[in-house]
Design goal:
binds zinc ion, 4 strands, about 20% helix, four-stranded antiparallel sheet, alpha+beta, about 110 residues, SH3 type barrels
Amino acid sequence: MADRLGDLIDDYCPRCKLLLNHAIASMIDDQVVKVICKTCYTEHAYRRGEGGKKKTPAGVTLFQQVLANSAPADSPPAEPAKEPEAPAKKKRSAEPARYITRHPAPRKK
Ligand SMILES: [Zn+2]
């Protein structure tokens, strides 16, 4: 930013409730901190031209979290997919089948 103290910048005046010319009244590290409305001469924090809507990061975050929770497809699953706890039990159907099919040899006398 090339703005300096006393420069005119556009900002939202909370008193005039309009986007008006302001004079830079205070700066920190090339960032405008305070401005003075050239219309009503009210000094207020620089709002970067944003008027009406205040900073509500908490509300926005909460709203986004609600959206995220209600839309699982948009977010990765919280837990990694678990592997099967135990290897598949060996099917012993083969052995019983063998017993079943083993007929006692008929004795012939
Ligand atoms: Zn004003």
